Amino acid sequence: MSTLTAEQIAQHAYQAGFRGDALTTAVAVALAESGGNTRAHNGTPPDNSYGLWQVNMLGSMGPARRHQFNLDSNDELFDADENAKAAYAISNHGKSFGPWSTYTNGAYRKHLAEARKAAQHVTEHH
């Protein structure tokens, strides 16, 4: 198991394209979804979710998203960079976090302070 710090998650999110408040939110969502575990997997329907941002590949979403994200296998989503790129696309380039239940139910909020600090540090060093 590989568990990343908030700052490491922020680095992957930044590389995928998240900026500003969206970077902070993305880090907080990842922490709420996976606890920073790159190998997190929830296979209980209505989920078949992988990696940091728990990208859901259930049913017909799987083939469509594998094509969209240029993946040969769902397991590629255990790679933090691939997962971050998928999350960036799913979030409409950081504009909508509605697809994540930890965002809609507010669970991500308890990670905002840590996420904000990590996002600021990563942004300052780019």
Automatic annotation (TrEMBL):
SUPFAM superfamilies: Lysozyme-like. It holds the Pfam family SLT_3. Residues 10-102 form the Transglycosylase SLT domain. It comes from the Bacteria. InterPro entries: Lysozyme-like_dom_sf, SLT_3. This is Lytic transglycosylase. It comes from Amycolatopsis rhizosphaerae.
